[in-house]
Amino acid sequence: MRKIKITFRVTVFLLIGGLLHYALPQHDVVRVVNTYQERQDLNDWTRIFWARPDDQSATLINRDVQFIQTVKMRTWLLGFVPRETTEVMVYRNEDTGWGWPFYFKFDTANLQTEADDLSSTAQNPQWAVMTHYGWRNEYFSAFPNAVAIRPIDNPNVTIIPWFNIFFFIALMAAVLFIRAMWRQFRERSVDPLLDAAEHQFDEVQADVAQRRGRFTKWLDSWRDNNKNRPVK
Amino acid sequence: MGFIKLVVFGFIGLTVIYFSVSLYSRSVRKERLEDEFDAENPDGDRDARDAFVTAGLQAYDASIRPKLIGLVYVVPTLAIGAIVYMINAN
């Protein structure tokens, strides 16, 4: 039972953690190499890794998607520990519109222009901070979605994830508030009901005990009173 | 259409939160009034207690606190507006 409980908790934690890791914004230090546009097929389960920029896109089986090719500074631990080495990273650039995840991004064309403007060579690099969400997976052809880009002078910049700090504080507050609400609801609404039910149950039991008492007495009246008398 | 979906489901979700918070806030206030009365009158009669709690809850309903719960609708709307502006402003 304990093992099942632990497994259940770990699964829930991993699912929520995975969802947040996919949907919350992250920052990469990148150098834009090129941008391109390619037609993508959207008619299998990997559809979940592509956005739905507008209503008609929900029914299309393929459409053009814009991409931003970059060289990215590697990091450890979700970007908290910088490293000296680089890797390549390709971002998709899609509107999220009014739907999930709630970035309300409508400026795809502008972002593509900004990325084009920042593109540079390895000899004369122009570094930039790319804000994005999502995962890169080569086997499923999944790409993180670029949300914003801003130029920086030095690739060793310190980035403070203000939104995520605010988000986790708000999440903690919401969890504590829901717990307080649940406790108040239990104390004021559920416990009195349970108490009343318990009281009623006790009364019924007492009633049964009394009846049984009468019945046993009546039975006893038929018994031979001398039967259990100790032998002298 | 996506916008309408967001507005409709957002409104439903926020309404659920609004009523939950309203009930919670009122319940906390009622409990505090009951405790207050019990502390002042250890063996007060039931009618006086009910009258005290009812008067206290009426004062609560007339105060600004329950109206502030309306911020449940205002704050997310402003937050979404701010995000839309910050993401798309050039």
Describe the structure.
The complex is a heterodimer of chains A (232) and B (90). Chain A has two domains: 25-159; 160-219. Helix content of chain A is 40%, strand content 25%. Chain A has helices at residues 2-23, 108-118, 162-220, and strands at 26-41, 62-76, 81-93, 128-133, 145-151. In chain A, a hairpin with a 4-residue loop joins strand 2 (62-76) and strand 3.
User: How much helicity do the residues of chain A have?
Assistant: 25-40%
User: Hey, roughly how much beta strand do the residues of chain A contain?
Assistant: 15-25%
Figure out the total of helices of chain A. Answer: 3
Based on secondary structure, the structural category of chain A is alpha+beta
Spans where pLDDT lies below 50 across 5 or more residues of chain A: none
Strand content of chain B: under 5%
What is the distance, rounded to the nearest whole angstrom, between the alpha carbons of the first and last residues of chain A? 59 Å
End-to-end span of chain B in angstroms?
25 Å
Q: Tell me the helix content of chain B.
A: over 70%
Query: What class do helices, strands and sheet pairing of chain B give?
Result: mainly alpha
Q: Order the strands across the largest sheet of chain A as they lie in space.
A: 3-2-1-4-5
Could you tell me the number of beta strands of chain A? 5
| H and E string of chain B | HHHH
What keywords describe this structure?
heterodimer, A: alpha+beta, 2 domains, 5-stranded antiparallel β-sheet, 40% helix, 25% strand
What can be said about this structure in brief?
The complex is a heterodimer of chains A (232) and B (90). Chain A is α+β, with helices and mostly antiparallel strands and 232 residues long.
Topology:
The complex is a heterodimer of chains A (232) and B (90).
Chain A: H1 2-23, E1 26-41, E2 62-76, E3 81-93, H2 108-118, E4 128-133, E5 145-151, H3 162-220
Antiparallel strand pairs in A: 1-2, 1-4, 2-3, 4-5
Chain B: H1 2-40, H2 46-62, H3 65-68, H4 71-88
Helix pairs in contact in B: 1-2
